Amino acid sequence: MTRSLRAGRSGDVLAVVSQSGPTVSFFDAGSDRHLGTVETPAEPHELCFDPVHRLLWCATTYRSGYYHANSGRRSELTVLDPDTRQIVAIVDLAPEHGPHGLALDVARGRLYVSVEASQTRGGGVVVVDTATRRVIGRIDTGAPGPHWFVASPDGTTGYASNKEAPFVSVVDLLDGTLTDRIEVPGGEGLAVSQDGAKLYVASPYASFGGARPAAPPGVRVIDTKARSVVGTLPTDDLVVPVHLTATGKLLAGEVRMTDGNTEPGQLQKPGQLTVFSADSHEKTGSVDVGRCPLTITSSPDGALGYVAGVIDSTVHVIDLDAMSCLARLDIPKLGEPGAHGLAYIPRVTS
């Protein structure tokens, strides 16, 4: 079973960011063979693959450090060709800065990029035309730190989680306006169901600052029509990334700390990938992964999960049916942090 899961993926590529590298590394998804590494401007965070133009967008967020603990915010997106493994463009969003969350509308050729507030404007979402690579719009999110962003499958509605701000911003992507706020106790990663009816938000905000969490950890389930929280998928520890597979599995990355430690660099326990059914909301399994999981993605068929642990700088490849680790990829880093953004790139087919 393991062999068949892996063998049919030869030619597909997994791209992995090293935040301190600063690099994007490429691996064959069938063999885990390292194909090459591209050095990027500091400091890369998230990735988004555009299958129409076969380009990989990379958000370079800070000059060094983390959210609320950095030496300055960058304003660029790096555009890479994953086949030749070369940088083809640097798109400067200035005066916007702190780009992080990336969401693609393939049908309309739009890339949505969350950006942080400045002294003169609030946080928002920048709209980039993927053909011209030019900024064509901006949507206010009503919060200083929109960090993660997803778009509904029909491309009409966007959702931004705002770290410590106690709500999810709802924006109309056609009109370019903020339309609503859904109350949550701070938010991290988020994912929207394939029918657009449910939004899943990791909450509360993972501050790591020693303060007590605003609410019990877990994943808030939001009815997008009612625009309200209708349930919580409970977890033992704070969740940062969430991801929905094509087969209806909700993947949540739990950050587990040694008792008494509250700083990111002191997270000693392995992280945990916890899986729920998106239909029944039942927990179906869990498995240890690298310390401080920040990003999760999956193969297009939903059979494999990939979890980037930023402190260990690893990517764990998970069989999502057996809930077992098939491989661990070690991502080069220069100090901390390490592995962060992920993208699965299917091979070219005739």
From TrEMBL:
Q: Which Gene3D superfamilies match?
A: YVTN repeat-like/Quinoprotein amine dehydrogenase
Superkingdom: Bacteria
Please name the PANTHER family in this protein's record: DIHYDRO-HEME D1 DEHYDROGENASE, PROTEIN NIRF
| Protein name per its UniProtKB record | YncE family protein
- Name the source organism: Amycolatopsis melonis
